[in-house]
Amino acid sequence: MSGGSATVLLVGGGSGGHIYPNMAVAERLAEKGVGVIPHYVVSERAVDARVCEGLGAGWSAVPAAPPSVRPGGAWRFWTGWRGTAAGVRRLLEEHDAAGSPVRAVVATGGFVSAAVVAAVKRWIPGMPTALVSLDATAGRANRWAARKADTVFSAYAGGGLRDAEVIGYPLRRAVVKAGEAGPGDGRVLLVFGGSQGGGTINRAMMELAGMAEAKKLLRGWRVVHVTGEADEAAVRAAYEEAGMDAEVLAFCGEMGALWGRAELAICRAGGGSVAEAWANAVPSVFLPYPFHKDEHQRLNALPMVNAGGAVLMKDAVDARLNASALVGQLRALIGNADRLQGMRRALRDRPMEDGASVIADWVAERLA
Fold this sequence. Notes:
This protein is about 45% helix and about 15% strand. It is of the alpha/beta class. The strands form two sheets. It has a seven-stranded parallel sheet with strand order 3-2-1-4-5-6-7, with helices on both faces. Strand 11 (about 260-265), helix 10 (about 270-280) and strand 12 (about 285) form a beta-alpha-beta unit. Helix 4 (about 110-125) packs parallel to helix 5 (about 140-150). The longest helix has 27 residues, at about 70-95. The two termini are about 20 Å apart. About 50% of the residues are buried. The model has no long low-confidence stretch (mean pLDDT about 90).
């Protein structure tokens, strides 16, 4: 840590989806020549450590936990909240002692953000703090943090946060690589359930691999499937048994390389996945996570669907039902080159605003 510089805390964890947008903000700050030291604050989950180990920047894990009404969960939330407050105080003091005091905070939502924003405002009430809401519906943690933050940004209009400035989703440059097909790929179908995988999508694709019509439709295609660690071996075995051309990965930290190869995608509808598909102009079939009561992933996908670049499908949880519905979608899309081309064109004709640049400008203004 070099002395004489200001530090900006980039807060958010629990999944890669809360960390990657902060990486985009750090990237834009560097591009604009804003002399700050980025320091990431994440959760203690293994996926956060996996993402942060390749950052080339400082990071800290705090014991924040999601709120829960169950006795064990409530206790973890409370002890995590207190532990986070103590950890943030130590972090602030360490940066002060090193001559690189914290001068601004950017929080990308979720349970880590709520606990850290509360702690920062407790120890330094005047600290400039921005909340960035990444989904179409703001969750409880975001609604709470928004009341503490000085500025609120939202990647979606009508996200339930009053006075939020609507911006584009903050994306790293590396995830936008449209048209960079790999050697010998042929046509690529990307299957992606998020940074921790998508169990119901994985099981649906395993069922689909054994269906004769699916094999016929995907002749000449390569399936590139990011499964998450739990299902990697089973999914690979299913494709091998079916004799399908498939590349199976447990995790991919550089999704731009995969989006650049993809001609069509089947994926969850987290805010990051939707934004990456849109930015790379990849027609997509979205299966929103089926267990969210507020259905925010379905709402995340709607703008891209309404723009003509995606199809929304209900995740039935049952693998056979999902596989049958997916075959129907593949029949309608793979069998219609003009439709795929039109979907791609619709996305290219409506590029997103660079939300990461807007947030970087906010940081620079606060430092000035």
